[in-house]
UniProtKB/TrEMBL annotation:
The gene is alkJ_1. FAD binds at V83, V219. It is an enzyme of class 1 (oxidoreductase). It comes from Cupriavidus yeoncheonensis. It comes from the Bacteria. Keywords: FAD, Flavoprotein, Oxidoreductase. Its cofactor is FAD. The keyword tRNA processing does not apply. SUPFAM superfamilies: FAD-linked reductases, C-terminal domain (SSF54373), FAD/NAD(P)-binding domain (SSF51905). This is Alcohol dehydrogenase [acceptor]. Belongs to the GMC oxidoreductase family. Its EC number is 1.1.99.-. The keyword Flavoprotein applies. Residues 81-104, 254-268 form the Glucose-methanol-choline oxidoreductase N-terminal domain. PROSITE patterns: GMC_OXRED_1 (PS00623), GMC_OXRED_2 (PS00624).
Length: 539
């Protein structure tokens, strides 16, 4: 058994940040364990390669949800990165922080002003390398590269004009704390190539003698001495291994795998664990609860007289031209993030701040992984940014190799069904704006036959799919919160030497894409860990 100061479980977005920051102290040694392999698969780095990474066991855990009542009995694929860089190696590359009020709510729920927007903004800026340079809201010179996209589509320009005509103002920056507006997403790329957290943070630290990185290492259980977590057991290369931690074990395995590992180790709902033959080490009823995710409703609109990717990529000559454009300039469709244009809006006038996010694409297909439609069309996906539905992630086997049961419980509240109906109506208003009229837009999905609230909620169940933002399954909160799993410093309640640093700690989902907020959480956690160590050494 080897001994380290810190053991980090998961080399995803948070784990890569932590490994970099902690090993900046030369006297600290760190073990970073990743169940997946190295990020040396070429499709990780070509932006359009997400098509070949999602659903691929080389890079994806291949999870699925249960059959969801709110989705009319459908089960969804639930991609999670299983590779160095985690989900930042397979995601949409969109740089998004959320809204000021998201973080102010975290501070209120945890009693810690360090989570307020004004407190976390410097953390976002610290790791940022923004293409426009430093400013009040952006940083430059950090590890996390943010660039403008390298593309141009007439249909997207017309959508911007249509959204403006529907009352959504144009913006060139969604990351100032109020993301109301319509404009192009900025992306985590460097000159048209995906910039994942493995490149950004881990590569800079990989040669440090105080960092040990082990890939193909799946943790099976945490180890304990009384109430203190002392290390981990893991399987790698077909053999069982153990490692000990002098200071802390840090779970950075994500909103699915972190609660799974806690339950496998006897931390969670007592009756649930006992029924699986797992000894209860510490009862924490909130483990695996509070799952929140953004459900996107994909409206497909046929258009005429304007070209979209559907027809540009229809022929071999078109595909060849696209390939050559990327090969020589790293631009064009192969450089595209899955969604290129965004908009943040209110589903109705009563909303105090934007509660909807649009992801707009100059293409359409029946569902992810299927061929593009033969006709010109664009897709306007809209999601409820702050759903009230809550789901769960729980194990149903004591075997660590078995996938947990993922039940998002989408559209399970009246409010979420109402917002779904209102958001589809807003999409129709945008499409009906004068800017798009020359292209004779025709709703293909969900179809014009859905009009009432009930019918539109049913339509949402037919077309809704995850946008890959699961959070909240080990939420932070005050000690008196019965479903809190970690405190405001991300320490597991009732257990010493164990911390959770990933998207699972979010008490409320952020109002936007969740990858960069997870990086910010890891930045703050690295400060906490270093502060705690200094205090221990001084004591």
């Amino acid at each position: 058994m080897e001994t380290f100061d810190y053991i980090i479980v998961g080399a995803g977005s948070a784990g890569c940040v932590l490994a970099n920051r902690l090993t900046q102290d030369a006297e600290v040694n760190v073990l970073l364990l990743e169940a997946g392999g190295k990020d040396d698969y070429h499709w990780i780095h070509i932006p359009v390669g997400y098509l070949y990474c999602i659903g691929n066991p080389r890079t994806d855990w291949l999870y699925r949800t249960v059959a969801e009542k709110g989705l009319n009995g459908r089960s969804l694929g639930y991609p999670r990165g299983r590779v160095l860089g985690g989900s930042s190696s397979i995601n949409g590359m969109i740089y998004m922080r959320g809204q000021r009020e998201d973080y102010d709510d975290w501070a209120r729920l945890t009693g810690d002003d360090g989570w307020r927007w004004d407190s976390v903004l410097p953390l976002f800026k610290r790791s940022e390398d923004h293409h426009r340079g430093p400013s009040e809201f952006h940083g430059a010179g950090g590890e996390w590269r943010v660039e403008a996209q390298r593309l141009q589509w007439d249909i997207l320009e017309r959508f911007i004009e249509a959204a403006e005509q529907a009352g959504i103002p144009r913006t060139d920056d969604f990351n100032r704390g109020d993301n109301f507006g319509v404009g192009y997403f900025e992306v985590n790329q460097r000159r048209g190539i995906r910039w994942n957290t493995s490149k950004a943070f881990l590569r800079r630290a990989a040669d440090r003698p105080n960092l040990t990185i082990v890939t193909g290492a799946q943790v099976s259980a945490l180890t304990f001495e009384g109430r203190r977590c002392t290390g981990v057991n893991y399987v790698g290369g077909g053999q069982a291994h153990s490692a000990a931690a002098r200071h802390e074990v840090i779970l950075a395995a994500g909103a699915v795998n972190t609660p799974q590992l806690l339950e496998l180790s006897g931390i969670g709902q007592g009756e649930r664990l006992q029924a699986l033959g797992i000894q209860v080490r510490h009862a924490l009823p909130g483990v695996g609860e509070n799952l929140q995710d953004h459900l996107q409703l994909r409206s497909v609109v046929k258009v005429n007289g304007v070209r979209t990717l559907n027809t540009r990529a229809a022929s071999w000559w078109g595909k060849l031209g696209i390939g050559l454009e990327y090969a020589f300039n790293q631009s064009g469709p192969m450089s595209m993030a899955p969604s290129q244009l965004g908009a943040f809006a209110r589903s109705d006038a009563s909303q105090a701040r934007p509660n909807l996010e649009y992801h707009v694409q100059p293409l359409s297909l029946d569902k992810f992984g299927e061929p593009l439609h033969a006709f010109n069309a664009f897709t306007a996906s809209v999601c409820n940014l702050r759903p009230t539905s809550r789901g769960s992630v729980h194990i149903d086997s004591a075997d660590f190799r078995q996938a947990p049961v993922i039940a998002p419980n989408y559209l399970s509240t009246d409010e979420d069904r109402r917002v779904a109906a209102d958001s589809l109506r807003l999409t129709r208003r945008i499409v009906a704006s004068p800017a798009l009229a020359p292209y004779r837009p025709e709703e293909w999905l969900p179809g014009p036959g859905f009009e009432t609230d009930e019918a539109l909620a049913e339509a949402a169940g037919n077309i809704g799919t995850t946008i890959f933002h699961p959070v909240g399954t080990c939420r932070m909160g005050r000690a008196e919160d019965p479903l809190a799993v970690v405190d405001q410093r991300l320490r597991v309640l009732g257990i010493d030497g164990l911390r959770v640093v990933d998207a699972s700690v979010m008490p409320l989902i952020t109002s936007g894409n969740t990858n960069s907020p997870t990086i910010m959480i890891a930045e703050r956690a690295s400060d906490m860990l270093r502060e705690d160590r200094r205090q221990q050494l001084a004591a």
